[in-house]
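Prolyl oligopeptidase family serine peptidase: structure tokens wanted.
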Amino acid sequence: MRTFKTILVMCLSLLAFAPGRADTGQPLAPISERIQLHTQTISTTRFPATVPGKRPAAILLHGYQCLEACSEAYARYARSLAAAGIDAYVVNYYNESDLAALKAGTLDAAGYAGRFKRWAVAVRELMARIGAQNQSNGRIAVVGFSQGGRLAVAVAADNPAATALVALYARLPDPVELDADLKALPPTLLLHGDADTVVPLRGGEAILAKARELGTPSDLVIYPGEGHGFDFSADSAAAIDARRRVIEFLRSVMAVR
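Answer:
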């Protein structure tokens, strides 16, 4: 029985990561999976690209406490990426301990830096898994929102597997959250509202300054009057523009035709 269950799990895992029939141009159904990594188990929902052949991928990282409540906003990004020829993975990088701490209001208490480093290790391992899949062309972007944006910076830092970085209303990781000084970043796009009171605009400006100090092609788009999570609207002009910019940037950097 154990052998059968092991084979079944392996088959389901291969099915989840196998390229879908992306030859019709129609959206493909998202595929959800729990993936066992060396440091923890994480949940992903993959939105397969609607083009055949090898293609790039983007990993989307959620904010501090915006998981289920923001799932449709992440799905809007993921569907747009898939339609643009990029496999999109919406990732829940919290484990059960993280979720319990979040519920108790202690996630960012003592030990937070250790959690943050574990998340970065897990996402980097996931990148390696994705890059090894048959449908991958080896180009992988990291897209993060708020805390997820800070995590995206940590994941992309000095990481040759990261082709592009997008951080929305984020700030630089604290030095204690990194294993070493930040020395390199991939091409970077930053988006921030100037009315953000959760992560003030100076957070995005600091990332931009660091990226330019490192010689990284980078840009910061500022949205006047917009606050934290402004792009989660389905139809506001700022949100539509933000999603368009993210898609165009990733298509350009990852050479999607």
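Residues 2-253 form a domain with the Rossmann fold fold (CATH 3.40.50.1820). Helices lie at 2-17, 71-83, 96-104, 112-131, 147-156, 201-213, 237-253.

Cheers.
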